[in-house]
Write the structure tokens for this entry.
Amino acid sequence: MRSVFADYPLDFARPELRALRDLLAQSIYRTRELEDVVLGTGLNPGAIDFGGSALMQWRSVLTEARAQERIESLLEVVRQTQPTLGVRIDELLGPQPVLAPGTGLPDQLSDPKGAGWRGFGAERRIVSDFDTLLGIAFLATGLERSRSICRITATFGAKRSHATASLVAPDLLLTNHHALYDWEAGDRPASGVEAWFDYELDPEGVSRQMSVVPCDASTIDGGREHDWAIVRTKIPPPPTSAVLDLHGAAPPRREDYVFIIQHPEGGPKKIGLSHNLVRHVDDDVLQYWTDTRTGSSGAPVFDSNWRVVGLHHRWVTAPEGEGVAYRNQGRRIERVLAGLSSRGIEVSTP
């Protein structure tokens, strides 16, 4: 495959180049940090457009680095600044770029014309009247839950894709159906799967020792309707991991807080903590505001007590003319548990 940096000007229509730009923008987004990268690369900062969003700034940086034939130097500075990004950069620039899986067309519940979109236009408002205070134990419990979360890479012939998954039994990973089945090729299951545990930074900002756990692709099973799938590991996950309990959550309600621990853009593990409000709930799905990216698919959706209330699977666009561009959507965990039970698949129990 021809390198994304072979041509000039750069072709940002290529998905691997967009994914690289997005990864860099969500990892190095403060202007001062970006200026340090530019200077460290030897680029002329006066040639960079530092206006606009981090996405636009990184587009300018990549374009200028290519014009000056300093792409390799730029990426080396990024690797030194953010060591955990090195493996992801190599994936995107390799012969088989690892990209987010396709989610297909929205179903009726994800369609702006569906019942889940009533009153969507009223969402552009100040949320300062919501109490955002949580008990201090919230942080410790969240860190404990994060031990269950991993990144997965699925192989479909010459194509590979990434998503988020959670350990829900000693040898069982739960993610989305569209992560382990190729929705763009007749729902064929992945021919290979591996899980990355501890792909994250420690409190000192140092990369943890990542563990790569191979999975048995012959054990893939799932339900397309509620977008869930499982796969079993070939070897035990590392001792730093923990099994996630999927039971015990109270039914989610509108204006509840939810949190998603995820591997956005296929990069290191992260969490979004700002104004993560549920906006709609029905028997099948919950829709919410929270920060996600490609690669967040398959992550568990937690309530403020760190109980699992859903399985994140996509973002959904607003009806034309509405005041907010999108919501995120997860499948209710009750629907996922029912699907698991119907297949005789046992997960953790209280």
In short: The mean pLDDT is 89. The chain has two domains: 15-98, 100-350. The CA atoms of residues 266 and 295 lie 5 Å apart.
